[in-house]
Specification:
about 550 residues; 17 helices
Length: about 550
């Protein structure tokens, strides 16, 4: 098989827009596609998940997705949040396209024309609510924390800042669908809230983080992945609540792309009272689930539910008999919504001395155990500069003590986040880490996202050079080319106003210096002062 990339790569100069879903990135096509095709052609293992878009028409979905993408693509340009705009905009557009097709098919099945109403619980940035509302579906989103982008949508997009605690006051009897798009701690409760809101209320959840009714979810089967086990748990919740639960795989740029849908019930409306008793018993059995022994008396199965759900190994034990529903109430106490003020967990709040200690430990591993000097060698530069080796993140983690790892695990991203934050010292790519060689930054510019981290002119010489202070061979760059200070005497106070001009990449020697660049431009080349700067014309 021969694949020609010339026609694809030729579009690179034409500002060809690629979102990585319908039009894969050129770098992915050229560097990864052939290898993946070769591997896929010989694989025969059975997937644990349904095929993508198995519940709707792919032709309809593709048409709706293209229309929505064209309509809302400008959101990428004005995205005010710190999150990746391409990832979040195109993911929510894809989810909206799926729901619109699913709901159109449902209206045709039921013989109705009125568009379904919805409530998005834990709506986050609210973009999904905005798209669905703009496409004619009445609905609203609720989240515990307001986002900056909410002000951009306009009054037709209803978004409410409020905490959702599952109880009788958080039911939605007049709503057709409840949505849980990465709704975290609310995810297992959404089928329950939908079931108790009204007999006609349905649900759609896209599980991401693993939560039980109270606290974190703990899997009980090692032969399943935690993700597969959690999907089975949410399916079991939906079946116990009396839903026919269907599973599908979305076409979105995410590793967590399996959705669960409850469109119809397994019991008639007259059986609601007895079904709610079984729901309540099941919910209370989940309390204390991680500490319980293997199941001895499973909860009563929901009528019509599959036997695998009723007797699944993930079911919690009934070690104390059936709970007293009247005494304990219909809702499980102890649920805690997330904090309104999101705690910073990107390792930035860790004590400085702890971060420095981990950086030194990892650097020592990469340099082969060569003792790190308290100061650089004479001259600050040696011909044979020790670049160390590359190690996988798992190899590095194996060398750190248990207490350090536990402390890092409480942060988002853990060890990898800390090493990425220390980008002056390390480069982390594809699960491996190595010592950063600043001599190569000029050549790597534009290849990797990390190349964007070249210090701004306002930060020039405002921090000490880690290599000058700690590396056995000192800094690989001479002082006038290094963006960091070689000693306290070179330190400069940081500028309050950040400039838009970027520092030049490391130069080759003392004879070359940076010529002044026009304000607002990116300096990407160096040239001797004896020669004029290149033309700034088009």
């Amino acid at each position: 098989m021969c694949i020609k990339f010339s026609s694809v790569t030729s579009k690179k100069s034409e500002r060809w827009h690629s979102d990585g879903i319908v039009y894969p990135k050129v770098t992915w096509l050229a560097g990864e596609l052939l290898g993946k095709l070769a591997r896929w052609s010989v694989e025969s293992r059975q997937s644990a998940f349904k095929s993508t878009l198995s519940l709707i028409s792919i032709v309809k979905y593709s048409k709706v997705y293209q229309e929505l993408k064209e309509k809302y693509k400008d959101m990428v340009k004005v995205w005010p949040e710190v999150t990746d705009p391409e990832k979040f905009v195109y993911e929510d557009v894809a989810i909206a396209a799926y729901l619109l097709v699913l709901w159109e098919d449902e209206r045709a099945e039921r013989g109705v024309t009125a568009k379904q109403s919805f409530v998005d619980l834990g709506c986050g940035n609210g973009l999904l609510v905005h798209v669905l509302s703009s496409e004619g579906h009445p609905g609203r989103g609720i989240d515990i924390r307001r986002r900056k982008i909410w002000d951009m949508y306009g009054p037709q997009t209803r978004l409410e800042e409020d905490a959702i605690t599952p109880n009788d006051s958080t039911l939605f009897p007049d709503v057709d669908w409840l949505i849980g798009n990465h709704s975290d701690e609310l995810t297992p409760w959404i089928p329950v809230i939908a079931a108790r809101s009204s007999y006609n209320c349905r649900f759609f959840v896209l599980p991401c983080c693993f939560f039980d009714f109270v606290g974190r979810y703990h899997r009980r089967q090692s032969e399943k992945t935690q993700y597969r086990g959690y999907l089975d748990f949410i399916t079991e919740v939906g079946a116990t609540c009396g839903f026919h639960v269907e599973e599908d795989c979305l076409r979105i740029p995410s590793t967590k792309r399996v959705c669960l849908i409850g469109k119809s019930r397994t019991y008639p409306p007259a059986g609601e009272a007895s079904m709610d008793v079984q729901r309540t018993q099941y919910i209370h059995r989940r309390r204390g689930c991680p500490q319980s022994p293997p199941s001895r008396a499973p909860a009563p199965p929901a009528p019509g539910a599959a036997a695998s759900s009723a007797e699944g190994p993930d079911r919690c034990p009934d070690s104390h008999g059936a709970p007293d529903v009247q005494a304990e109430g219909l809702w499980l106490p102890g649920f805690r919504p997330r904090e309104k003020a999101e705690r910073v967990r990107n390792c930035a709040a860790l004590p400085r001395h702890f971060v420095d200690q981990v950086v030194l430990q990892v650097a020592d591993l990469l340099l082969g155990g060569k003792q790190l000097n308290p100061r650089s060698s004479p001259g600050g530069r040696l011909k044979a500069w020790n670049r160390g080796e590359s190690l996988s993140l798992s190899e590095v983690a194996d060398k750190l003590d248990r207490e350090t790892l536990q402390r890092l695990k409480r942060e988002c991203g853990g060890l990898q986040t800390l090493l990425r934050n220390s980008h002056q010292v390390f480069e982390v790519l594809n699960g491996t880490v190595h010592i950063r060689d600043w001599r190569e930054e000029k050549h790597q510019k534009g290849k990797h996202p990390e190349a964007k981290r070249t210090p701004l002119s306002g930060a020039f010489k405002t921090r000490l050079c880690w290599f000058f202070t700690h590396h056995p061979d000192g800094c690989a760059l001479p002082s006038h080319c290094c963006p960091f200070a070689h000693g306290p005497e070179e330190l400069r106070p940081p500028r309050r106003k950040r400039r838009s001009c970027e520092l030049p990449p490391p130069c080759e020697g003392p004879a070359e210096r940076q010529a002044p660049a026009p304000q607002g431009c990116m300096v990407s080349e160096t040239f001797p002062l004896s020669s004029p700067p290149p033309s700034m014309g088009t």
